[in-house]
Specification:
This protein has helices spanning 5-11, 17-32, 51-65, 95-110, 139-149, 158-167, 199-210, 226-239, 254-263, 275-284, 303-312, 328-336, 339-345, 374-384, 393-402, and strands at residues 38-40, 43-46, 76-78, 134-136, 169-171, 185-189, 216-218, 246-247, 270-273, 293-301, 321-326, 348-352, 369-371, 388-390. By secondary structure, the chain is of the alpha/beta class. The chain binds FE3-S4 cluster (F3S).
């Protein structure tokens, strides 16, 4: 792989051990994927920040990378951590977990990384533009940036995203190359099947499960807003390895994607989502008893979602807990709008900086969690070892209000 003179010097240790390791990670990745060279990035998004997901390996790598006064060369931001930095006492987070998590965040900050602690930086002003090259690691944000914005990023690991933030470069391969962004699957919905709102997230989960490595060209769906795109893509990225999808007539590369299908030499295979498939998926994940926790905000809730919950929940939550996860910036905005106070009076808690998947949920006393996120539905039983069911937001509000399913 052709290297810049900066990369060569970094590899030889001219800038210290930390930057040497960052350059080594970038070069190894590029050589593995046969990248011809590296390219400059405009931002990096680092995942695996929670002690629960990053663990000792993250602590060790950060110790090495922090050697030599290195700082990031492009804006770099962090995914959620293991607890709300302002409310960890009331969350029942063990003391050792709390201390080590704070140390991890401080190390990132000493490297110049912004402690945004959110998986939705694009909802908080950190928005790339179409065509920007990124090194983002959070899978839902990767899918959003590629699909909804038309920026270009591979699905980095937390460590390779950090390395890219420090060198300002990433190997040129995969989804950075236009040719590799062609759809290789047409997704159709059965005639007269309409999937809308947060039910679209389950459709995303289904597509990811059935065609985990595809680039789908989706027809028959019309996500209405940013919130629905983030949930749809998160589902595909969770059950599969999907980092890019196109929606007919909607997403920025959809016109080009359609032409590649129409003009391609080989027919693109298709997948039809049927009513039976969707019903079977909903049925399998439907609650049979009252969940002890309702959790919204995976990916982190937008302010629009918080407004919707406050407006539709008329009265107090009964016999269950109701939590919303969001970014600190959105939480501050929601507080200024009076939503945090209003929801608290109804029994709904808003947490920032963390989420139901990366916090130590398994150590809390919940025997069944309901979520309207297909990503949380996928990961919570695996990472939190907590039984989890899917409940669209409108049902969740009704159940929370009545204290019964
Ligand atoms: Fe975000 Fe946590 Fe879900 S990081 S995408 S809220 S698993």
């Amino acid at each position: 792989m052709k290297l810049t003179s900066f990369e060569e010097k970094a590899l030889r240790g001219k800038y210290g051990k930390g930057l040497g390791l960052a350059a080594r990670i970038t070069v190894n990745l590029g050589e593995f994927f046969n990248a011809p060279y590296t390219v400059g990035i405009t931002s990096a998004h680092i995942s695996g920040v929670s002690l629960k997901t990053g663990g000792k390996a993250l602590e060790r790598v950060l110790d090495i990378i922090a050697e030599g006064n290195n700082t990031t060369r492009v804006p770099a931001f962090l995914n959620p951590a293991g607890f709300d930095l302002r409310r960890y006492e009331s969350m029942g987070v063990p003391e050792d977990f709390q201390r080590r998590q704070q140390e991890i965040i401080e190390k990132f900050v000493s490297l110049g990384v912004l402690p945004t602690l959110t998986c939705t930086p694009y909802l908080n002003g950190l928005v790339p533009k179409k065509g920007d090259i990124l090194a983002w690691a959070e899978s839902s944000a990767v899918t959003f940036a590629n699909s909804y914005i038309g920026a270009r990023t591979n699905r980095e690991s937390g460590i390779s995203a950090l390395a890219a933030a420090l060198t300002g470069r990433t190997p040129y391969y995969g989804l950075l190359i236009r040719e590799n962004r062609r759809p290789d699957l047409i997704v159709r919905t059965e005639e007269e099947l309409t999937v809308e709102g947060d039910r679209l997230y389950m459709l995303g989960l289904l597509v990811g499960k059935r065609r985990p490595t595809s680039i789908p060209y989706m027809t028959g769906i019309e996500p209405k807003n940013v919130t629905e795109y983030k949930g749809l893509g998160a589902g595909m990225a969770a059950s599969g390895n999907i980092s890019l999808y196109h929606v007919e007539g909607e997403t920025p590369e959809a016109g080009w994607a359609k032409r590649t299908i129409d003009e391609g030499r080989e027919a693109v295979p298709s997948l039809t989502i049927t009513r039976d498939m969707m019903e079977e998926l909903f049925e399998r994940n439907r609650p049979k008893t009252l969940p002890s926790l309702m959790a919204v905000g995976c990916p982190h809730a937008s302010v629009e979602e918080i407004i919707e919950i406050d407006r539709s929940l008329k009265g107090e939550v009964k016999d269950t807990d109701f939590w919303i996860f969001t970014s600190r910036q959105t939480e501050i905005l929601a507080a200024r709008m009076g939503l945090v106070g209003s929801l608290k009076r109804k029994g709904v808690e808003i947490f920032a900086d963390t989420c139901m998947v990366v916090m130590p949920t398994e150590q809390l006393d919940y025997d069944l969690i309901a979520t309207n996120s297909s990503k949380a539905l996928h990961y919570l039983p695996r990472m939190g070892n907590v039984p989890t069911v899917f409940m669209p937001l409108d049902e969740m509000i009704k159940v929370a209000r009545e204290g019964a399913i």
